[in-house]
Amino acid sequence: MTHSSSPSVVVIGLDAAEVGLVERYMAEGAMPTLASLAARGLMCRLASVADAFAGAVWPSFLYGVHPGKHGYCGGYPIKPGTLDVDPADAGEDAYRPFYAETGDDPPRVVVLDVPKSHADEKARGAFLVAWGAHAARSAAASHPPELFAEVLREVGPYPIPLLAQEDDIHELSYYRDLHRLLLKGVEARQRLHRHFLAREPWDLFITVFGETHIVGHRFWHFMDEAHPWHKVNDPVELKSAIRSVYTAVDAAIADLVEQLRPDTTVLIVSSHGMKANYNALELLPRLLERFSGVERHMSQRPVFDRLLAGSALALRSLVPAAARARIKRGVSGPLRQRLRGAYLKAIWGWDRWPTMRAFCTPSEDNGYIRVNLRGREPDGLVEPGAEYEALLSELTSELLSLTDVETGRPVIASVLRPQEKYPGPAATRMPDLIAHWAPGTPIRGLRSARFGDVVAPTRVQHRSGDHRPTGFLVAAGPTVAPGARPKDAQLLDLAPTILSLLNRPIPPHLDGRILPEIAPERCEAR
């Protein structure tokens, strides 16, 4: 149901859906809905902030600004004024969603399960948070508050407990169950959409399929014959799991679109993509320890903090993965994130950071490097200015010179300074450098001409697929130019483009631009 006299826009997120796979499945007839929408509208690549922080893509979409401004800079950022990390909580951000910043007549919205969002009690509409979102930042919630109970009663619970897909289990029975539950998750979202489409009037309807994200992380090796985890005799249904989930999502999109007014603008958005997961996340902290010459020393951390981190590491080592998974099913998503944070701190050598010039902070994808900077860190060792810049240059050169111990190939493709690319009041929470792993082949160990070989057993890897920064956009509607190919389109362009489609004022603080191929009548509105 929509307002009969006003424009309406539907945004359907395919979280971390890989554009190369989507295009293949469209061509093969496995995703006919997306193929049809693209044929009568447009399809293009979409750049995002995932070159720095994959976890920041949906907050950046919702707030219409980059992470240096909105403050969400990954799952385990540095707490200001400390040398500690803690999962960022929803509701801490400096901005409100873009649709709530439009003056006296904000659009009426339905926002369903956008990852890392929270229920904005001041906005106009219905909000569902952490019902079945991937890697939620907050506990399950809704606005109005009674809405969540209504969803559980009328639609039912999401079939996969939050973060259960991150269990480091690799038995075929686990993958079979997860595949089955992901397909049930798509069916549940279809019921959710029907419930809200009929529930109340809206101008803007936003929903995100998290299943495309999960299936890429956990099932990539079944599809990718070059992946070292791939086995020729793996079950056929697991080798085609990604395709089957993408196909199910396409069918659910068809069901949603069939219920819309013909003049509704439909935007299909993939915030970022997916690729084979080849990294050396556990090895990079060891290299930085050699760089700083502090492989062994007496910890300066408080006893309780050291016990918590050490206990998390010991518990993970002693308790079988299946038993840990059963225990975690009774723990809320945010608490699970905090427990995982304690474990990752132990793996990343958090107790050594106070005596290091530069150290790695926990990450699930890229290598995050933080300088122990005087005036920013509590007991900083590196002077701002020339010493800081020289250290960044030295580290960048060292990172780019690293090779794999077996193949001799470079292991770092590029090094980003995120505080320069995404400046703002929250930039100091970011790493000083982000190392992007070279794609193509697994990394067996790091070889440095200065510090020798760094090789250690892997403990944190449970994903065979991981993020890449490129997403895509499919758009169809009355103002969309058929066959157009927007140049340099970015995820941040969606907020002003959507507001333009809704004939709402565009706040001047938004970072993106209106895409004229989608909203041409207001391309000069700013």
Provide a brief overview of the structure.
The chain has 526 residues and is an alpha+beta fold. Helices cover 34% and strands 14% of the residues. The protein has two domains: 9-74 and 82-276 and 466-522, Alkaline Phosphatase, subunit A; 283-463, no CATH class.
Question: What do you see in this structure?
Answer:
With 526 residues, this protein is α+β, with helices and mostly antiparallel strands. It folds into two domains: 9-74 and 82-276 and 466-522, Alkaline Phosphatase, subunit A (3-Layer(aba) Sandwich); 283-463, no CATH class. 34% of the residues lie in helices and 14% in strands. The chain is built from 16 helices and 17 strands. An eight-stranded mixed sheet has the order 2-17-7-1-6-3-4-5. Strands 9-10-13-12 form a four-stranded antiparallel sheet. Helix 6 (172-199) packs antiparallel against helix 7 (211-223), helix 6 (172-199) packs parallel to helix 9 and helix 11 (303-318) packs across helix 13.
